[in-house]
Amino acid sequence: MSLEYVIGAFLFISNSDSLTLSRMKHHPDLYKLDILNFAQTSSTLGGELPLSGFERLKIEDARPSPEESVSWTLKGEQRKTQNGTPQIWLHLKANTHIVLTCQRCLELAPFELAVDRHFRFVDSEETALAQDDENEEDLLALDRKFNALELIEDELIMNLPLVPRHQACHNSVLEGLAQEIQNDPQFQRPNPFAALEKLKKRTKT
Ligand SMILES: [Zn+2]
């Protein structure tokens, strides 16, 4: 490998990193959102972020396209309860597309990741943990420097399909082959009960 090539590759990496960071910095509040103030003032934030900036989404088999972006909105809300104590809420919506390897035909398949969740903030991590079991709501600890970027990334990760698969694979030859193998008795595990049946018959005769 020539030195020129190595330097070229390095420059490319550092350029794309700084590009990602500068784009991310359009929303500095996202790193340290004052949730209480955000909810009390019924604030809204939103925009687009490059998918390639979400490091934890770069998992094995996932191929975030460099052009793909994540559109997101955050809405703060303070709700009054019956006993008069106000509740702090955050509504997150995020949407993107990711390309994963289909586990049936092993070709690439596009998937939509769509997040639409409401979070209620309680005074501490302990309260959130203690109340989590008895509540269907998603509880988070109130933080005056809340990392909403991390929340967006967490929620996108939770939305990844467990077993990525095309709804209908294009490569029907491969799929047909997989089906054939599945049905071929040569590749099937012997049923232990069938073996027991045989043994029973043999002992009778
Ligand atoms: Zn497929």
What can you see in these coordinates?
The chain is α+β, with helices and mostly antiparallel strands. It has a domain of 142 residues. 35% of the residues lie in helices and 26% in strands. It is built from six helices and five strands; from the N terminus they run ααββββαβααα. It has a five-stranded mixed β-sheet with strand order 1-2-3-4-5. The longest helix has 22 residues. It is elongated and about 75 Å long. The relative contact order is 0.13. The structure holds zinc ion. The site of zinc ion (ZN) has 8 residues, from loops. Zinc ion binds next to loops.
- Mean pLDDT across the residues is 77
Q: Provide the structure class.
A: alpha+beta
Q: Assembly state here?
A: single chain
SS elements, strand count? 5
Name the poorly predicted regions: 1-23
| Number of helices, counting only DSSP H or I runs of 4 residues or more | 6
Give the amount of beta strand, in percent.
25-35%
Describe the strand arrangement of the main beta sheet, using strand numbers.
1-2-3-4-5
The distinct ligands, each listed once, are:
zinc ion
Distance between the termini: 74 Å
Helix-strand pattern: HHEEEEHEHHH
Please summarize the sheet with the most strands.
5 strands, mixed
Query: How would you sum up the global shape?
Result: elongated
Please give the share of residues in helix: 25-40%
